[in-house]
Amino acid sequence: MILRLAIIGFGNVGQGFARMLLDKREWLLKTKGLDVEIVAISTRSRGSLISNRGLDIERVLDLLANGKSLDEYGDEATECTARQIIDRTIADMMIELTTLNIEDGQPATDHISHALSKGMDVVTANKGPIAFAYHDLRTTSRSMGSRFRFEGTVMDGTPIFSLIEKTLPGCEVIDIRGILNSTSNYVLTAMTNGRSMKDAVMEAQAKGIAEADPTLDLEGWDAAAKITALANVLMDARMTPRDVDRTGIKGITAETMNEAARQDNRIRLVASASRNNDDVVLRVKPESVSSKSPFWSVNGTSSAITIRTDLMGELTILETDPELTQTAYAVFSDMLHVVESIRSGTL
Ligand SMILES: NC(=O)c1ccc[n+]([C@@H]2O[C@H](COP(=O)([O-])OP(=O)(O)OC[C@H]3O[C@@H](n4cnc5c(N)ncnc54)[C@H](OP(=O)(O)O)[C@@H]3O)[C@@H](O)[C@H]2O)c1
Question: What pLDDT does residue 210 have?
Fold first, then answer.
């Protein structure tokens, strides 16, 4: 089977995913009978490509690694916008990996909606569309018979959405609690070890964990987008990150950390979703967790989630020190789940 991909947004994750496809090319052919071709790539400022024959990915990665624009690739270079590329490409699947927009999830939501409405399958690691428009996108995908997967939006390639969907049929999710933002957890861990918040943030930036502007992380917006995505998908909520009762870690001081330590506790930024009658209540706030909590030993850039269900009780999943490979793997595994669905004729 030949699978043709259009990748909209080709930064860290897109390039990591493309490298994974190259590394796994033989394995995909041998064990899955799958020949994956990238037939379109769109970026905002580094050029875009469209081709019906498939692009030479090593060459594309080389150009970008050498700081060049994709315009230098050849006749396949195009000035089309992402939306125009979705209109013109022959791809079977669109992979949306543009930058998160925490205000409204755009233009990623529009890219996904457009691709689904043209009958393409879609995979994304961008949490904006799931946090702002999950139910609309799900309705479009069902009405068009397209598949839509988004494992990488929360905890990278750790199976959270797939776990519930594929392995816990019939379980109702009652509540969710998680440490979902790497930068905040890295900063809080460093503060536990006596560093100031300012130094810890600079350290996180130097290691490439935090953005130059870490506001989205430190003010709890990233965690808010993730808990909203989880609640929309797993608890049938209809919410956006603006509905989250949100407090970031900016107000945490050395004294707060010391006070927690005196009680043998640690401060963690906890995102939660719980039911209150027919409503779902979403919160992001720093909490003092005891050594009995599974969150006590979640340090540095690690993440953890506890999901309480009616039939399977409480499950906690820990992801230890993830790197880019784990996010690229989320896209890779979603792609393979879509291929399985295509072959079995399911959605
Ligand atoms: N990095 C991670 O570890 C991680 C983990 C989980 C989820 N994610 C999510 O995955 C997505 C991609 O992350 P990343 O780290 O790869 O980001 P990135 O390195 O900033 O790359 C984003 C890409 O999207 C392109 N882009 C932005 N707006 C566009 C538009 N309107 N049309 C076409 N292309 C556009 C950018 O083009 P330019 O290069 O020209 O700006 C760039 O190629 C984000 O939504 C992020 O939240 C990332």
Answer: 85
Question: Is there an atom of ligand 1 within 6 Å of 16 CB?
Answer: no
Say if 162 falls within a structural domain: no
Q: What are all long-range contacts of 231-234, with beta carbons under 8 Å and residues at least 24 apart? A: 231/176, 231/273, 231/280, 231/282, 232/130, 232/131, 232/134, 232/135, 233/130, 233/134, 233/150, 233/161, 234/161, 234/164, 234/173, 234/176, 234/307
Longest dimension (CA), the chain: 66
**Residue 245: DSSP 8-state:** E
Residue 233 sits in which domain range?
167-321
Does residue 214 have its Cβ closer than 6 Å to ligand 1? no
pLDDT at position 249: 98
Specify whether 200 is located in the same domain as 310.
yes
**Number of structural domains, the chain?**
2
* Pair (68, 183) in one structural domain: no
Residue of 7, 13, 48, 127 to mutate, ligand 1, most atoms within 8 A of C-beta: 13
Per-10-residue mean pLDDT of the chain, 347 residues long, equals: 98 97 98 98 98 97 98 98 98 97 97 98 98 98 98 98 96 98 97 95 91 91 98 98 98 95 97 95 98 97 98 98 96 98 95
pLDDT score, position 227: 98
183 lines ligand 1 (CB under 6 A): no
Provide the pairing of β-strand 2-8 with 35-42.
parallel
Q: What is the pLDDT of residue 208?
A: 86
The residue whose CB lies within 8 Å of the most ligand 1 atoms, and thus the one to mutate among 17, 63, 99, is: 99
